[in-house]
Amino acid sequence: MCRRATGSAFAVLAWVPSPDLTWIDATPSYRRSSPIAQRGFCPACGSPLSLAYDVSPGEIALHVGTFDDPARLEPRYNYGSGQRLGWVCCGVDLPHRETEERW
Q1: Cβ-count burial of 55 within 10 angstroms (0-12 exposed, 13-18 middle, 19+ buried)?
Q2: What CATH number does the domain containing 9 carry?
Q3: Which domain of life is it from (predicted)?
Q4: Which candidate, 66, 57, 64, 102, places its Cα nearest to that of 83?
Q5: How far apart are the C-alpha atoms of 9 and 14, rounded to whole Å?
Q6: The model's pTM
Q7: Are 53 and 69 in contact (CB under 8 A)?
Q8: Which one of 15, 48, 79, 85 is most buried, by most CB atoms within 10 A?
Q9: Is residue 102 assigned to a domain?
């Protein structure tokens, strides 16, 4: 799901409580990316911004590359590791969390 939504080998996301999030310049546009989630994107350029699962309305994942200082947001785990491409080697030493999603 992340590969298709981002056009990349994987997505690096930072989970935050959604009530704590304030969009400053513009509110993202949203699209349903699967039966269980929707994704936010910049309405002006189309850059992916967020991921929100329907079952977790109190949190939202933000694409780390959109932060002013993404180096401060170091990954803590891998999600959906079973679908990792064989040549991806970054973060292989992090804890893994599997997913059943196949969208």
Answers
A1: exposed
A2: 2.170.150.70
A3: Bacteria
A4: 102
A5: 17
A6: 0.81
A7: no
A8: 48
A9: no
